[in-house]
Design a protein that fits this description.
The protein is of the alpha+beta class. About 20% of the residues lie in helices and about 30% in strands. A 6-stranded antiparallel β-sheet has the order 1-2-6-5-4-3, with no helix packed on it. A hairpin with a 7-residue loop joins strand 3 and strand 4. The radius of gyration is 16 Å and the shape is globular. The C terminus is likely disordered.
Length: about 120
């Protein structure tokens, strides 16, 4: 998913909840930024060795409580290219809309859906 770095909206990132297999490695020690207390670790490409992004290894309470999409793997858009994720069939591209298939979700407004997703994410942690 394409995203912008909250601390600097000029920085474009790609985020995911699952890291790519057999292509990256966590490197270095955990660190925090000045914006929050999340613990972060750099991610390097196994092919070239360059740092291509970072992983939130331990989200802080403030970030956990705020609405988020559960994506803790961030990649610099200048260092990687996005790949569409396939659905359970392995044929079709996964779309957000296809994840909501119950009658209740179909009848909810966009604002209600956003609030429910936020509450679900916060209650699972």
């Amino acid at each position: 998913m394409r995203a912008l770095l909250l601390a600097d909206t000029k920085v474009e990132l790609y985020s995911t909840d699952l890291p790519p297999e057999n292509s990256i490695q966590l490197i270095g020690t955990d660190y925090s930024t000045k914006n929050c207390e999340c613990r972060i670790k750099d991610v390097a490409c196994l092919g070239c060795g360059n740092v291509v992004g970072y992983h939130v290894t331990l989200p802080c309470q403030s970030c956990i409580r705020s609405c988020n999409n559960g994506h803790f793997w961030m990649f610099h858009s200048s260092a990687v290219f996005p790949v569409d994720r396939l659905d359970q069939t392995g044929i079709q591209i996964m779309l957000w809309g296809s994840l909501l298939n119950s009658k209740e979700h179909n009848e909810m407004s966009d604002d209600d859906l956003m609030m429910e997703e936020c509450l679900q994410m916060n209650s699972h942690i």
